[in-house]
Design brief:
By secondary structure, the chain is an alpha/beta fold. The protein contains eleven helices and ten strands. It binds coenzyme A (COA).
């Protein structure tokens, strides 16, 4: 598939998607959102891919937000549709993907860019990264899940302050808040992220997809996460990965998981 706004590469069962609009600091226009959706969908269905890394091109920005030029003249209905469609196509889509998605935040992650990073399963930042939700400076609120996911990650009080002041925090503060798990230099960012992906790939892909589902259930209205856990725990017992994992342990050898 040919994309105009993103790059997709794969290496050793790890796919890397790079948002590639460096002259616009990788801002998310609707075409980029659609392309990201297609790329995530196709990688989810690609048996060779075990982990997906999402990053931005260049040394300055991960994604500097939704493309302000694109929605500057929108009506109420168009604004609502923009948020709804984006959430369904990309942000909720990534969060609920069966394969692990790691954001490698290589610079500014602002507005829709931080929302994109927060929809990934976890985040690693380079030490030059800056993060914030500055929508109120534009007379807006976050519309791609930011009012929900930021408090889940950093707590309500910190989310309120970040959204109300619109200020950026640096990578060290983001780590202190629990918004990112690790901070490394920009030169190390992709290799370090791949080293975490490699640790994940030692484990059962099937169990990992069920773990993602069970963890996410904690954040879904009307869903009992403990019940989701029980059901998915049970399902693991019917899988080849479970037989392989337990047999390999008892035979004192490394597991060879097939994801079945
Ligand atoms: N939407 C559309 N275009 C954007 C953008 C966005 N969110 N963020 C940056 N750009 C564009 C700029 O318009 C500029 O384009 P131009 O060269 O055609 O004029 C280009 O990217 C470079 O940005 P610039 O502002 O010149 O870089 P800077 O280093 O001076 O500032 C930022 C960097 C990130 C502080 C600044 O670009 C910014 O505040 N961006 C908007 C962030 C934001 O509010 N995001 C939330 C949107 S919901």
């Amino acid at each position: 598939m040919n994309y105009s706004n993103i790059l997709v590469a794969s290496d050793n069962n790890i796919a890397t998607i790079t948002v590639n609009r460096p002259t616009k600091l990788n801002a998310l226009n609707s075409e980029t959102i659609q392309e990201l959706h297609e790329a995530f969908k196709s990688l989810e269905n690609n048996d060779d891919i075990r982990v997906i890394i999402l990053t931005g091109s260049g040394e300055k920005a991960f994604v500097a937000g939704a493309d302000i030029a694109e929605f500057a003249n929108f009506s109420i209905a168009e604004g609502e549709q923009l948020a709804k469609q984006g959430q369904e196509l990309l942000f909720d889509f990534i969060e609920n993907l069966k394969k692990p998605v790691i954001a490698a935040i290589n610079g500014f992650a602002l507005g829709g860019g931080l929302e994109l990073a927060m929809s990934c399963h976890f985040r690693i930042a380079s030490d030059n990264a800056k993060m914030g939700l500055p929508e109120v400076t534009l007379g807006l609120i976050p519309g791609y899940g930011g009012t929900q996911r930021l408090p889940q990650l950093v707590g309500k009080g910190r989310a309120m302050e970040m959204i109300m002041t619109a200020e950026m925090i640096d990578a060290a503060a983001a780590k202190n808040y629990g918004l990112v798990n690790h901070v490394v230099t920009l030169a190390e960012l992709l290799e370090f992220t791949k080293s975490i992906a490699t640790k994940i790939m030692r484990n059962s892909p099937l169990a990992i997809s069920k773990a993602i589902k069970a963890i996410n259930a904690n954040y879904k209205d009307g869903v009992n996460g403990f019940e989701t856990e029980v059901r998915n725990f049970g399902k693991c017992f019917g899988t080849e990965d479970f037989k392989e994992g337990t047999t390999a342990f008892l035979e004192k050898r490394k597991s060879e998981f097939t994801g079945k």
